[in-house]
Amino acid sequence: MTLCSQIVWLFVLAIPIACVSWTVTHEEVFKEPREFCVNKCKTGKAALTRKFFYLFTCEYCFSHYVTIAFLLLTGYHLLLADWRGYIIAGFSLVWIANIYMSLFGFIKQDIKKEKIEIAEIEKKTKE
Fold this sequence. Notes:
By secondary structure, the chain is mainly α. Helix content is about 85%, strand content about 0%. The protein has one domain (about 5-125). Helix 1 (about 5-25) packs across helix 5, helix 2 (about 30-45) packs antiparallel against helix 3 and helix 4 packs across helix 5.
């Protein structure tokens, strides 16, 4: 794979990694399992138990595991064709995916803020 192809793969492959990581750690569809993990994370007696369940509540932590799954699925490597290329690819994908998730979080927050402001304006106009 050429370096240009590897870079394209990096930015494209990070999209589904970010999507899966964000969905599991933030969206309503996984609310109950996430609340269970948050509870176990806070009330677990053993440190290992608390840390294990924390992994499912933090998008950054969870994105590492999603990245490993995608690396196994695709065989993608970056810069080097051996095991070192997989390590470089893994950390690079996590970094790009987390940039995507941060941008998505900011956009989602801004949209929510705008909806609240619009509701307040509509409420004032009705009064």
